[in-house]
Backbone:
């Protein structure tokens, strides 16, 4: 409320923390005009002008431009509407800065070449629709013709990254790395081989229902041997290897003489570290718990399959 007191420009500067020059600038722009002038022509301001000037200082600190501030203090637009619009703009700027931070962090960590840096920057700044199309193309190339409904549709959904509207820098960095992975031809080929094997298992079972894939079966068969410390090259590993081979032969239809070689070829695709990395990145992007690593399981089986003592029946 205006108590009738008038302030000199010097007093106003002390009260607001602004310089006399800044106050004169706002007065000359008509944003905070003086309330009155002294007989000697000096500017004087009332309590309303003081409140108006403090609002101007706050809005400037928040990044609003002078024309917008003048419309606010003149009640031509609502402060609520302006605040909402600028908050939205700032959110977009923050998101862009996070994207750039993620790219620069990755470049520094990897020692990336200029070409890699350009690629990462492009991937980081894709729109939501562009990210969706990139992921859909990758998943369609892996699973698209193996069954658009049912189990494979569910698998595709669980392999879809969803970057949040306001991602953390680590999530953006994970998205960039995941997007790079999806473009690697060898990685795509390996996933396709695993998907085709799983599709063939379903057909031979005849029920078409959801069942554990071979990777899960291998985990269940090999993990007890890992826990008890069985050497994969020892005769004690033979029963475990035989069980894995039997599981593979039963569901793949491979002839007995070819099982070991086929299983090794499957294992090369399954133990590709990029596969595990994809699921680690996916969990980080989507805010899921980190998946358990199957690398020790696959490494144990790979050694056992190549050890003569372990593959004897």
Residues:
């Amino acid at each position: 409320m205006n108590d009738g007191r008038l302030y000199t420009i010097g007093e106003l500067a002390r009260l607001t923390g602004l310089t006399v020059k800044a106050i004169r600038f706002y007065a000359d722009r008509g944003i905070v005009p003086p309330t009155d002038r002294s007989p000697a022509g000096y500017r004087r301001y009332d309590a309303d002008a003081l409140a108006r000037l403090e609002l101007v200082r706050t809005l400037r600190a928040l990044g609003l431009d002078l024309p917008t501030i003048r419309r606010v203090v003149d009640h031509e637009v609502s402060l609520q509407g302006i605040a909402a619009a600028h908050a939205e703009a700032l959110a977009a700027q923050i998101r862009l800065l996070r994207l750039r931070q993620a790219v620069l962090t990755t470049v520094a960590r990897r020692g990336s070449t200029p070409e890699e840096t350009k690629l990462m920057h492009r991937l980081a700044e894709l729109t939501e629709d562009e990210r969706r199309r990139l992921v859909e193309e990758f998943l369609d190339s892996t699973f698209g013709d193996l069954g658009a409904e049912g189990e494979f549709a569910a698998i595709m959904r669980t392999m879809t990254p969803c970057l949040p509207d306001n991602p953390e820098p680590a999530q953006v960095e994970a998205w960039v790395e995941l997007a790079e992975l999806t473009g690697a031809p060898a990685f795509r080929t390996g996933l396709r081989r695993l998907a085709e094997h799983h599709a063939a298992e379903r057909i031979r079972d005849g029920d078409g229902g959801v069942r554990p894939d071979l990777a899960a079966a291998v985990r269940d068969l090999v993990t007890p041997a890992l826990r008890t410390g069985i050497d994969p090259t020892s005769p004690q590993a033979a029963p475990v290897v035989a069980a894995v081979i039997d599981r593979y032969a039963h569901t793949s239809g491979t002839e007995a003489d070819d099982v070991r070689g086929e299983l090794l070829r499957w294992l090369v695709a399954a133990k590709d570290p990029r596969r595990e990395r994809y699921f680690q990145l996916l969990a980080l992007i989507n805010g899921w718990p980190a998946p358990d690593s199957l690398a020790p399981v696959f490494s144990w089986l790979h050694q056992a399959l190549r050890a003569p003592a372990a593959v004897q029946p």
User: Anything to note?
Assistant: The radius of gyration is 33 Å.
